[in-house]
Specification:
This protein starts with a strand and ends with a helix. α4 links the parallel β3 and β4. 42% of the residues lie in helices and 14% in strands. The chain is an alpha/beta fold and 382 residues long. The chain folds into 2 domains: 243 residues, Aspartate Aminotransferase, domain 2; 121 residues, Aspartate Aminotransferase, domain 1, CATH 3.90.1150. It contains 13 helices and 12 strands.
Length: 382
């Protein structure tokens, strides 16, 4: 028998309390019982998103559904939008915007670079008719964290321009102060920091974003925000919801409120730092730049002469620890250790132990135990 550890940036492990909640007998979604579940989910998400001013809408979809919803509900064909990206999922927002006929300008950065808010300010000054700025806060593919607080201050000065933030791997791992930072639309997915299986997505919609909705003429049906707002005001949903996932979400949000959002963010920061220090102690080079490292996932360069795909394979098949490989041009060149959601100190220690044994098997030279020791020191200080 092999005990398995899921150390990817999504899907992430699910607490037993949440799994048991989802195993309850099915209930009908047009009943007071489910109305209470919807109410709990909305209130809990408002807490996690740190918002009172924005509405929170919940979809039965992946995070990409939330991405698409933000485009179709805010713009008209031909609207000028600015998409900033430094990874695979920022590029996805560009693709969605182009599919719907938007006039897209791209600020493209390398996967090891942070989006520069000054570039956004310069673009808006030169193009004041821009209707939207789209930025990824925590880029899953590169581990880079972008400063959406600074971007929020810039975009807030343009009344007709909305800020869309992909925080699918940010929510629950790093600070996201939706109201305080003037973030018009923020999105996440259930299989990340919310500690659920895949299948749900959520977005916040500010009053400024609702004003943009009123002029939007792009086609929408399933993802029409107004339908969700109207139904959520009655504690229900416009279409058949993922009932068991919603019940699980209510339970997960209860756990998050018990821990406290500040403590959750501090826990993720500690686990991320332990992972980084452990890898560096093995002589490995971190992928994301020091000034922009997020706390959801740690990407690491594969050592020269080592097969990166074998690292992922051996860790999973021999040691039971599943990590993620690199994506696109970085496939086989980096590996990614996730620590987003339901993770604790010993998950990191176990993962580093498996990584050390794997690297030894592949012939990489280092002092055995050095990564574990470095991580332990961080966790003890925490």
């Amino acid at each position: 028998m092999q005990k398995k550890y899921l150390m990817t940036p999504g899907p992430t492990p699910v607490p037993s309390e949440v799994l048991l909640a989802q195993a309850r007998p099915m209930i009908h979604h047009r009943t007071p019982d489910f109305n209470a579940v919807v109410r709990e989910c909305v209130e809990g998400l408002k807490y996690v998103f740190q918002t009172e001013a924005s509405d929170v809408l919940i979809f039965a979809s992946s995070g990409t559904g939330a991405m698409e919803s933000s485009v179709v509900n805010l713009f008209c064909a031909g609207d000028e939008v600015l998409v900033c990206y430094n990874g695979k999922f920022g590029q996805r927002m560009e693709q969605i915007a182009k599919v719907y006929g938007l006039d897209v300008t791209v600020l493209s950065y390398g996967w090891q670079q942070v989006v520069d808010p000054a570039d956004i300010a310069a673009h808006l000054a030169a193009h004041p008719n821009t209707r939207g700025v789209i930025v990824t806060q925590s880029e899953t593919s590169s581990g880079v964290l972008n400063d959406v607080e600074a971007v929020g201050k810039i975009v807030a000065a343009y009344p007709e321009c909305v800020l869309i933030v992909d925080s699918i791997t940010g929510i629950g791992a790093v600070a996201v102060k939706t109201d305080e930072w003037a973030l018009d639309v923020v999105m996440t997915g259930s299989q990340k920091g919310l500690m659920l299986p895949p299948g749900l997505a959520a977005v916040t919609v500010s009053p400024k974003a609702w004003a943009a909705y009123e002029r939007s003429s792009l086609p929408k049906f399933y993802f029409d925000w107004k339908k969700y707002k109207k139904n959520l005001e009655q504690d229900t949903t416009p279409f058949t919801p993922a009932v068991s996932l919603m019940i699980g979400l209510a339970e997960a949000l209860k756990l998050m409120r018990e821990e406290g959002i500040e403590h959750i963010i501090a826990r993720h920061a500690r686990l991320a730092e332990a992972t980084r220090k452990g890898c560096e102690a093995l002589g490995l080079e971190l992928f994301a730049p020091a000034e922009g490292r997020g706390n959801a996932v740690t990407p690491v360069w594969v050592p020269e002469g080592i097969d990166g795909k074998k690292i992922v394979s051996i860790m999973k098949n021999k040691h039971g620890v599943t990590i993620a490989g690199g994506q696109d041009d970085y496939a086989g060149r980096i590996f990614r250790v996730g620590h987003l959601g339901y993770f604790g100190d010993f998950d990191i220690i176990t993962t580093l132990a498996a990584l050390e044994m794997t690297l030894l098997e592949l012939g990489y030279a280092f002092e055995p135990g050095s990564g574990i020791k470095a991580a332990e020191l961080v966790l003890l200080e925490g």
